[in-house]
Amino acid sequence: MTTKNKATMTPKGKRLGRPPMAEETATLALRVPVELVDALDRYVVELGRQHRGITVTRNDTIRRLLIVGLEREGFALDEPKP
Known about the structure:
The chain is an all-alpha fold. 39% of the residues lie in helices and 0% in strands.
């Protein structure tokens, strides 16, 4: 039997924080030049302008750029794992 951590629960018994992801995820940390981060942030702002009403984040943008880049290089996500 598991016990709920009271520090992460609201008074109404709901859990705090982000809901669980629908798929398995991994954390990836990397260092990039400041110029690359600046370009990424400009791209995020532009996407936000193009898609009013939708919150566009750095993380969402990086995920999308990785998917597009991998597909262009022939490594689509739906390929079977070796």
